[in-house]
Amino acid sequence: MTGYIASHMVALLHEQGHKVSGVDNFSNSTIESLERLETLCETDLVFEEVDVCNEERLKFALTIATKVNGPIDAVMHFAGLKAVGESSKIPLHYYQTNIAGTLNLLGCMRDFGIKQFVFSSSATVYGVPETTPLHEGCRTQSTNPYGRSKLVIEELLEDIAAADPEMRITRLRYFNPVGAHPSGLIGELPNGIPNNLMPYVFKVATGELPQVNVFGNDYETKDGTGVRDYIHVCDLVSGHLSAVKHLAKNKGLFTFNLGTGKGYSVLEMIQRTEAITGIKIPYAISERRPGDVGEVYADASLAKHVLNWEAEYNLDDMIYHQWQWARKADQ
To answer: What is the residue range of 302's domain?
Structure first.
């Protein structure tokens, strides 16, 4: 609930008049994240500090949420570890948290009779792309433990949907979320050294870190550095809201890409950040990271056709909003 994407989801749901309850274990956020979110929402939120791997605590949190807000219509699952490079170093931790944690949550949903589920998957389930842009029918595989954990969960959800015709499940394959809430009150603030590019870039911009490490410049891309599809976090969570509205009217299992359909290289992201902030971003070329691939960007036309959703923010919006947030978070 207090993590990067989940906090923006809570803000949007609250803005739209929905009752929201959530849990978090603060493994990659802080209590200040909750306080900022409550300031933005102008209310106290129904929240329990819970690790998704603790089934009994999850059941307790769902019981409290039901007593306060009434029966739960849908669950959005954002709790998980997400760094490709880190997952290759500590794969067991990723499997325990992402896979076992999801199974705990699904078991609790079964016990509480909750039938609608939106899962945060990832473009990493496509592995080394067989084609770009990537569409939902592309082959799935994995090049790293993080992506493999997401792919295993996707397959588990297929079995669950097949076994229970009343289930309504959407798998959302994210590309690369960036940006921050336009208010500047919430954004990505990982504990320790960031694993993702843009938080790292902004820590260099604010002087917290000396330079950006660019992992590989020998990919078959426009400048040799990795190309990714960057999507504004506010566009991403609006996609979740569209998915929930779709599930309210449709049973079964659904899969959608959430991306912009445009790819930008690491060096392009650094250069555009320099142009918007007016700050020089030093960088150094390092070895490729295990599990990384050269170029990944989305075909998001299915989400547009079925969910009536498409990304609205452009790259400059993403960088400007994240810069607003980075300066506030640095204070």
So the answer is: 4-329
CB 119 within 8 A of CB 169: yes
Measured from the Cβ of residue 17, the count of other Cβ atoms closer than 10 Å reads 6
Question: Residues 37, 186: contact at Cβ < 8 Å?
Answer: yes
Q: What is the pLDDT of residue 331?
A: 56
Give the residue from 50, 64, 56 showing the smallest Cα distance to 21: 64
CATH code for position 296: 3.40.50.720
Amino acid sitting at position 31: I
The pLDDT of residue 302:
98
Alpha helices in the chain (DSSP H): 4-15, 31-41, 55-69, 84-89, 91-94, 101-112, 145-163, 197-205, 233-247, 266-277, 301-307, 315-329
pLDDT tens digit string along 65-107? Answer: 999 999 999 999 999 999 888 999 999 999 999 999 999 999 9
**Residue 298 DSSP one-character state:** B
Which tokens sit at 282? 């030093």
How far apart (Å, rounded) are the C-alpha atoms in residues 329 and 194? 14
Task: Describe the crossing of helices 315-329 and 266-277 by its angle, rounded to 10 degrees.
Answer: 70
Task: Report the 10 Å Cβ neighbour count for 210.
Answer: 9
The model carries a pTM of 0.95
Structure tokens at 54: 């603790």
| Structural domains in the chain (count) | 1
- Residues 53-80 as b/e (b if ≥16 CB within 10 A, e otherwise) read bebebbbebbeebeeeeeebebbbbbbb
What does the alpha-carbon distance between residue 281 and residue 207 come to, in Å, rounded to a whole number? 10
Instruction: Indicate which residue of 94, 95, 146, 297 is catalytic.
Output: 146
- The residue with tokens 């699952």 is 77
Active site residue 146: yes
